[in-house]
Amino acid sequence: MRLTNPLFRPVLFACLVAVVAVLGGCASLGPKADALHRTQYAWSGAIRWGDFEGAWGLLDPDMRDEKPMTDLEMERYKQVQISHYRDIGGMSDLDGGTAARDIEIGVINRHTLAERTVRYQETWRWDEEAKRWWVTSPMPDLWSGQ
């Protein structure tokens, strides 16, 4: 299309409108949604790469105080390697300060090298005072069904 073509300006305008619409859809959903995404990413990474102590630090402080993890429980987590951590669905109520995700975790026993899949549901709550999200579900039970 040449610059002198009478269709050039309407086509250019339509393209610009489309680009603006697409970029507008990429805008942030807000600080609470961004914080949830970042915290879920940190949680997923900690579990996926075997940083269970790091994951423990993302649990709701009330839960950590109520039922502290023993050294034996932490040692059990060192007996496994995670092969995958997949989000298979979820929901969030940002205004209500809650979220949940269904997760599939691939677990490899370091001693037998046997792999199996475990399902886990994460639950989250927004802490208005701390301005952050906490995991309110317990650490994943990687030994269920054994």
From TrEMBL:
<protein>
    <recommendedName>
        <fullName>Lipoprotein</fullName>
    </recommendedName>
</protein>
